[in-house]
Amino acid sequence: MLILGLNMFHADASAAIVQDGEVIFAIAEERLNRVKHYGGFPALAVKACLDAVGAKIADIDHVAVGQDSDANLAKKVQYALANPAKILNFIRLRQRKEQMRDVRSLLANALEVDSSKLNFQEHHLEHHVAHIASAYYCSPWQKAAGFSYDGSGDFVSTMMARCEGSEIEVLDRVYLPHSLGSFYTMICEFIGYKKYGDEGKVMGLAPYGKDSYVEKLRGIVGLNGNFQLDLGYFKPLGSNQGMQVLPDGTVRLARHFSDRMVELFGDPREPHAEITQRDMDLAYAMQHRFEEVFFHLLNQLHKRVPLEDLVMAGGCALNSVANGKLFNETPFRRTWIQPAAGDEGLAIGAALHTWHSVLKQPRKYVMKNSYLGPEFSDVTIETALRTAGLTYRKLERRPLLDEVAEQVAAGNVVGWFQGRMEWGPRALGNRSIVAHPGRSDMKDILNARIKHREWFRPFAPSIMAEYQHEYFEHDHPSPFMLHVYKIRPEKRQELCAVNHVDDTGRLQTVSRDENPMYYDLIDVFRRKTGIPVLLNTSFNENEPVVCTPAEAIDCFKRTRMDGLAIGSYLALKSEG
Ligand SMILES: [Fe+2]
User: Fold this and answer.
1) Cis peptide before 549, with omega less than 30 degrees from 0?
2) Has this prediction a pTM greater than 0.85?
3) 343 CA distance to ligand 1 middle (Å)
4) How far is the CA of 132 from the centre of ligand 1 (A)?
5) Ligand 1 mean position, distance from CA 190 (Å)
C-alpha cells in the first residue's frame, strides 16, 4: 500500500511516501529546485519519492494533501460577512484554492502521464490536523496530548487535540485573525525582519533586550480563554495578500503591522539599519509574551488531556527557546516534536493520517531519526569530486573520523556530508559544517568565511547523549535540535563558541543508534580534546541546505571551508 503525502501551493512545498504505514522518503521541494521555502507544486519531490520506492505514479493507492479549503468554511464566511471590504480577497483566494484541488491533473502533468491511468483515492486533511498527525503518528506513544500552532492554515492558527490509538480528536481551535504566529511575524517585520522564515533569526536577538515592553505587548495579545490579538495593531486580515506565493514559487510576506504600532513604538526599523536598543527590547518582549501565551495554552490543554506526553508541530513549534522551558512551566514531561514542524511536515502528517485514521491501521511506525532524504554512493561522490577538479583522498572509516576530528581540534572548519539528507530545516550531522565548540573566535570565523549570519545568532552544539546532563541543565533529549537549555556554569567556557549571550545552547542530542557515524565523529573529537560536543551548523551559504555531492563541493569551493569529508573521501584546501 503506497500513500503519497503532499504540501503544495503553500510555503515549503514537499512530498513524502508512506509504504505499509512506514515513511520511506520525504523531502521539501526547495532542496531539489534550490528555491528557499518554494511554495509551488512539488514536482521534483514527488518524483524523488516515487524513485525511492521504485514505483510509478499509477502504482500509488492514495494521495493525501495537508490542506482542506472546505475546513472551517462557516468561520471564513462569518468573517467575510462581518468584514465586507475583504470579501473580494476571500473569493480570489478561494478560486485559487479550487484550481489546485485538481490533484490528479497536477500529478499527471508533472509526471507526463495520462490522468486516466491514475487510480489513487484522494484525501484532503485540515492543515493543523495534518501538523498534529505529523507528530503523533511519528511518536512512540499510543496516547498523547496534541498541539499545533503557526501563522495560519485553513483559517486556524492553533489546535489542541487528544491523540489515542489511531485517532486524533480535535478539542479546540483558535480561528483567524487571532494567531500567535502572526503576532511574532508582525513584531519581526516591525524590527526589520520581513522575509518569510525570519522569525527564527529574531529569536536569537531576544536575549539581548531588556524588559521594557513586555507590559505593552501583553496589551496586544490578551489571555481571555485561549488568547486574542488586539486587532488595532495589525493590518486587517484580507486587506492585503498576507503571505503570498508568487508565480515563480517564492514566498512573500505583506506588511502585518498597522499605524498604531508606529504610534506606540516609533518608526519601524528598515532591514539594513542599525539595530537599536528599542529593537532588541521589542524582540525580548515578543519572545517573552509568546512564551507566556504558549505555556498558558499548554496548561489549558493539559487540563483536558492530563497526560505527561505532548506531541507538537506547526511553524511556531520551531521556537526551541519556548520548547526548552515547557518542562518547568507545564505538567508535560516528555515531548515529541516533528523535526519538520513547519509546513513541509504536512506531507508526512497527511499521509500517515490516511493510513491510520482513514484506513484504520494500527500504530506501529516510529520516526527514529530525520534522515529521510536522498543519499549518494561513493561512486557518484567520487565522480563529482573528479568533475570539480578537487584533490582528495579515499579513507577507511576510522582514519576518516580521525583526520576530521584532528582538523576540527586544530580549529579548522569541515564540511560533513554523509548518508541520507535530513528532513526538516535542521542539519543534524549528515549535511552539516562542523567546528570546535570551545574556541572563542569560532563564531566570527564561521561568519566571516562561510555563513555571513547576523552577529546575534548563536551556533548550535551537537552533544553525545550520555554527556547531556553534565553540560546542560535539562536531561530531556533534543534529537532534532528543537530545545534550548541552559549550559551549566562550569561548562560555559568549554563551550564558548556555542554558548549564547543568555548562557544557553540549542542542542542536538546525538545517540549512537540514531546516527553512528556522526556519534563516532564526536566521540573521536572527545578523545582528542576532552569535549563530547561539536559545533554543528547547516551545510549551506545563504541557500537551501546542500542536497547533492555537487552542491556540497560547490559550497566548499566558493567558501573558505578548510576541509570536506564527503562519503569516504576527504578534501583539504591545504592539499589542493
Ligand atoms: Fe502550518
Assistant:
1) no
2) yes
3) 5
4) 10
5) 22
